[in-house]
Amino acid sequence: MKLRWTNIYDIAIELEEAHPDIDIVNIRFTDLHKWITSLPSFEDLPNESSEKILEAIQMAWLEERE
């Protein structure tokens, strides 16, 4: 599956698999952006993200971990 910014929950699952020990609550959005765009299945334009999208992914990732 090719991931785009709108695939919030799928991105969260892949982030959890790739970074299981990260403190999600205190993550910097610059790091989150870098990790998302580095996912092998991510194929969207890096500059199409926004703080709102990154925050939604962060919250989905937190839910995935719980």
Give the overall average pLDDT: 96
The CATH homologous superfamily corresponds to IscX-like
State the end-to-end CA separation.
Answer: 24 Å
Question: Poorly predicted ranges (pLDDT <50, ≥5 residues)?
Answer: none
Strand content: under 5%
Q: What is the overall number of helices?
A: 3
Shape descriptor: globular
User: How many distinct beta strands?
Assistant: 0
Q: CATH topology, what is it called?
A: Arc Repressor Mutant, subunit A
Task: Compute the number of structural domains.
Answer: 1
As a percent range, the share of helical residues equals: 40-55%
Helix-strand sequence: HHH
Largest sheet: none
Would you identify the CATH architecture? Orthogonal Bundle
Task: Summarize the structure in words.
The protein has helices at 8-18, 29-38, 51-65. With 66 residues, the protein is mostly helical. It has one domain: IscX-like (Arc Repressor Mutant, subunit A). It is globular, with a radius of gyration of 10 Å. The relative contact order is 0.26.
Main attributes of the structure:
Arc Repressor Mutant, subunit A, mainly alpha, 66 residues, globular
Topology:
Elements: H1 8-18, H2 29-38, H3 51-65
Helix pairs in contact: 1-3
Give a quick rundown of the structure.
The chain is 55% helix and 0% strand.
